[in-house]
Design brief:
6 helices, two-stranded antiparallel sheet, 2 domains, single chain, alpha/beta, four-stranded mixed beta sheet
Length: 151
Amino acid sequence: MGAVTAGLGAEGEDDRATSGDPLDLTVEDTQLRRVDEIVGGIDGEPEAVAQLKIPDSPFKVTVALSSSIFGYALGINAADWLDGKSVPQAMDALPIALSKDNVAAYERDQADPAAVYADPSRRDRYIKRYGNICYDSRDHYLNFPWSSEAK
């Protein structure tokens, strides 16, 4: 893969556009780009997602977390816990690399988090769940430094 151009906003900002023109790029900027260079960002901000849907946009990728699906999972797990049901001990919100090829499916999933959560194959694209715990076993919780990234 070629070079990746990131840092679309001012230092310390995410991939939101910082001025009125798309991603602060001029026509001259896009004409001078190498063919192996892409423009991308992080955070999956609405402006970045919108850019992915524009034909010939220099913006090619953003990495998003599924906040609507993760938020739904937190809410349903809290309700299940209060009902005495077993819930995951831990969850990861998985990063999703969005491009023009998958942005429509991502937006459909974000619009209906309940349907995604109910379908394990769809849910597992966005959330990784670890272990189980319920009120009766609440004293057997994870009690050590833990990371899903640990080998």
